Structure prediction request, 395 residues.
Amino acid sequence: LLAAGVLSAFLGLLQLAQGPHSPLRFFAVTNTTEAVGFFANRNHFAALIYCVLLFAFAWTAEAVSRFQTAPRGNKSAQLSTLVVASFIVLVVLIAAQVMARSRAGLIISMAAIGAGLLLSLPFRSKRASQLSAARIIGAAAAVALIFLMQFGLFRLFQRFEADPLADARIFFARNTLEAANAFLPFGSGLGSFVRVYGLHEKPHDAMANTYANHAHNDILELFLETGWVGPIVAAIAGFWLSVRIVKTWAWSTSGTALIDTTLARASGFLIIFLILHSWVDYPLRTAAMMAVFAFACGLLVEPFASARESQGAALTDGSENGPSPIGGYDQLSPESVSLSVPAPKWSPEETGAGASAQSHIEIPTDSVPKAQRWGQDIKWPEAWQSKSRSPSKPN
Prediction:
């Protein structure tokens, strides 16, 4: 996912460099003056960037933590390269977000940077003088903004100059809500937005040579197409997601790697940001972002670390549980060998009168055989032993 996000970011920068007629823009109907990557819409490209940013923050914290905890003599070039690569990835992603010129994407990305600082807290160093993930994140944001001050920042301010009330989303939402009320309680049917919206669009809201393909508000569009059924199902799913997101911050890291817990917490932020973005756009209507959202939901499921720990304890238990069923045999130690010695037949001449009542034989501890190669305690024929000691013949 990180590789796909970085590749899409580089593609977006190349699209800007080649201009509106770049052959790297793969869709005829697209935003020709912004970076769109593999998408047709700059807002969806921006959504992918802030989603990848969250995972990049988690891996940056992991890379810095590994670099800090490594012994001073073992801080190899590989760990140093990992930290530098994480810094470069953050700079590229933040730069691509500014190049997309998506207002919602930029606002959510600023919130994602704050989430990244929160995700790096478990990795914080005990000494303030050491390198920290928070410093890497702040430095990456500063470097990206410095490079984009001349070009990207001016173009970004142009996006905020427009009056938000003049945005088409306002009357899109009003007309969609009016159409939804006309089709209650079961809605107009999934996929029927374009035809139904045209029936309720006001003449003064219509735009020349264009039509509304979506409501730019997924919640209202779901309400129009499914009536009360869709919002109820979405509310149930939202409740489950809320519970899982809260539980990720209570996970015990004793049986789970810290990076796994951090990625799960980053997924919680990702889900929240995509749902908030869906109020002003439709990022989850694209297959790519839907797959990212599903992947994030999967990371919210707690790993069965406790079950693995209990199973491992049972397998490594001693004589009570017997041999391990995995691998077939246990590694026997000299102390665990049970030596069974048959009772010898004593004669009266050897033992005397009281020997017949003897039922237990005391064996000195130094005579108990230690762990040894199989067959060493067997009295092999002398001919076999001489052959085995012969250097000219194999054993």
In short: The longest helix spans residues 42-69.
